[in-house]
Amino acid sequence: MPTIANVPLDAAFWIWGCVLAVFLGFAIYPILTLGPYIRAGCKINIHRNRIPPDNKVRQPNPNGDAFVLFLSGVGRVSALTMSRREQGILHRLAELCSDAVLLDDVFAYSINNLPLVSHRRLSPMWRWALRQKLKKRLHNSALGYLINLRNILHILISADSRYAMVYNRGCAHVITDHLQQYGYDLAQPKPLVIVSYSGAGQIAAGAVQYLSDEYRLPVYVLMLACFFTASGIDRASHVWEFIGTTDQAYRFCLLFSPSRWLIPRLSLWRRLTAAGRTTRIDMGAMKHTGRGGYLDRNSVTSEGVPFIDATAQAMADVINRIRTGTESLKEA
């Protein structure tokens, strides 16, 4: 049988065919994602979720002194989180920041807030992937990580300068539309705190530019082990990073974001840090996710505090200072 590099021709054909298919898929995905939005003149119907309040989160209150928006990690398929860990920290934040309006029903990986599991042609496939992910068996859960891969592609679109302007402006529009549903007045804006987890940090960083420049909102960003480029984040009033000493996933992804390296003198992140507009909070020996992660309720700090409670308290301290107007932009 003819061979190429000692690989049977038939096998080599399929290998290179798969590589080409993946490459083409990555190349045209941004066009498929943004095409309908651009054809509609960058105005598209935003899917409004009908998720009822749970007595702690999603409570409309126009008199709230700050609005806190939580953007989830890459495992989410809709605006409603199915993660017990994320639900746990949301409820803790709601208790610790009782005078703020806490929202969590924005799907960060969709330019029109449309969930993966409904109102889409490929919804049956995503529902199948979600079922596989929720199963305990390894091979099933691995198939479910198609959801993570799809959401990571949206993070890359948000970070790519060729598509970022369109995608991030759309995300900002979704956020402002969502805030108004809960009583936020764009004419008299109150502090908006975006709490991002993991990959959602890039979505937040991209949207901040338009939330600040076009809507004139005072935006503060809390990044929990987030992956993001520095472009656009300079429009935030202040940025806090919550990082664990054993979070290797965060450190690995930081290698692919040169704009956040502190070594180059002209690095945007270095300039923001020098201006006192970024604060890094050491979370101790916490990992990125799972056992020993920021949202783990079984692992405890040296003081005996569960990791999830320590994370919620650290964030709530910052939110309450913003909410009461006692937060200094040059706080170390």
TrEMBL record:
The chain crosses the membrane at residues 12-38. It comes from the Bacteria. It comes from Caldilineaceae bacterium SB0662_bin_9. Keywords: Membrane, Transmembrane, Transmembrane helix. The lineage of its organism: Bacteria, Bacillati, Chloroflexota, Caldilineae, Caldilineales. This is Alpha/beta hydrolase.
